[in-house]
Structure formats: C-alpha cells, structure tokens
Amino acid sequence: MYHLFNPENKFWNFVGKLTDAACMSILWAVVSLPLFTFGGTTTAFYEFCLHQASNTEGGVWRSFFGSFRKHFKKALLLWLIQLLGLAFFAADLLAAWNFFRIQGGVAGIAILGACGCLALIFLSCCLYLYPMLAIFDFPIKKLLHDSFIMAMGNLHVTVTLFVMLALVAVAFYYVSGLFFFWVGLYIFFSSYLITGVFLKYARDPEDGPDGKEQLEA
Do the beta carbons of residue 183 and residue 168 sit within 8 Å? Predict the structure, then answer.
C-alpha cells in the first residue's frame, strides 16, 4: 500500500508528466493564437516533452518560454516552409484530381498517385522537423535533409505517428473544444517514439536526446 501512494512510484511519476504536458498544451494554445508563433510554440512543446522522455525536464513555464525565445526564428522559417509546401501540394493534388477526372486512364492514375506519394513524403518529414530543431538546433537545410532520412528510415514510427494523428483528428471531431489537449497528448506520446529514433542516429547514444550530438548524414 505504501508503494501505491509513494510519490516516487512510476505510476504517479507518469501522471505528473502527463499533468505537466496538459499545462504545456494550454500554454501552447494561448501563445499560438497569433498563428505566426505556431512553429516556436510547437518546438518549445516538443523540447519539454522530449526532455520528459529522458527524465531531464525542468519547470513548465521556464522551459516553454526559454525554448520559444531560443528557437523562434528558425521555427518561424520552418513554419513558413511548411505552409508553402502544403499550399504547393494541395494545388498539385487538385490539378492531378481534375486531370484524372477529365482524362482518366493510366496516365491520370499515375499522375494522381505520384502527387499523393510526394505529398505523403512531405508530411512525413514535417513530423520530425520541430522535434529535431528542439533538440539538435541544426541549420534549416540539415533539418530538412535529416527529417527525410528519419521519416523514410523509420517507417514503422512514421506510420504510427500518422495513426496517432488520425486518432487526434477523430477526437477533435467529437470534442473540438479540447483540441489543445488532444494535440498535447499527441506531442507527449509521440516524443517517446521520436526519442527512440533520435537515439538511433546519435553518435553517442548514452548521452540521450537532450545532448547536442550530430546526426549521421
């Protein structure tokens, strides 16, 4: 019975981490309201949760705003790149769908399939960008390069992340008022998966994901 109520118990430790992530999700939602801050807030949220995964997290408030200030410029650039990429692939898919609808045939299927695959690869890379910036703080070019390597080299993790995003979308559809909480759950649990991916590419896995190790190109 003592172990059940011991604050050092693994269960209560996990509950504490989840509670901190819930508080972080509220901060994320509020500071993301201007929209242009989305990249910085998401990076800060990931940094906190990735440190949670390695048991090196600090206080919620200080960790969030410290990371936000540190990574804001690069995160903003990544956010703009993502928006441009999403707009580009949305336009491509629409054009490919119209071509398929009008022309049909093998050519239409091939073009639509190619556009869909490229869009999926782009989205897969996006899943790793903010976590990588949060921990490794690479230049933008290397972040884009290594996110592709991680996404394609760890397809089982990438697919799992997409499944988790689908569950978030379902939860958002039914209880949209708690959208920030669903996003927080996704970032919290995905951080444990992404930490495992980071450790695969770190030069010294013993240091954990909170170091500044360079990834193997």
Answer: yes
Three-state DSSP state, 202: strand
Alpha-carbon dihedral sign for residues 59, 60, 65, 68: positive
Q: Which of 171, 132, 176 is nearest to 150 (CA)?
A: 132
Task: Give the residue among 93, 90, 98 at the shortest CA–CA distance from 114.
Answer: 93
Give the whole-angstrom CA distance, residue 31 versus residue 41. Answer: 7
Compute, in degrees rounded to 10, the torsion defined by CA atoms 140, 122, 154, 159. Answer: 140
Q: CA–CA separation, 193 vs 128, rounded Å?
A: 11
Domain boundaries, the chain: 2-207
| Distance from C-alpha of 32 to C-alpha of 26, rounded to nearest angstrom | 10
Distance (Å, whole) CA 119 – CA 79: 16
% of the chain exceeding 70 in pLDDT: 89
pTM: 0.86
Backbone angles phi, psi at 202, to 5 degrees: -70, 145
Convert the pLDDT of each residue in 34-80 to its tens digit: 999 999 999 999 999 999 988 888 888 999 999 999 999 999 999 99
Helices (H) and strands (E) in the chain, counts: 8, 0
List 202's β-bridge partners, or say none: 215
Query: Is the CB of residue 202 less than 8 Å from the CB of residue 213?
Result: yes
- Alpha-helical runs (H) found in 56-154: 60-103, 105-136, 140-153
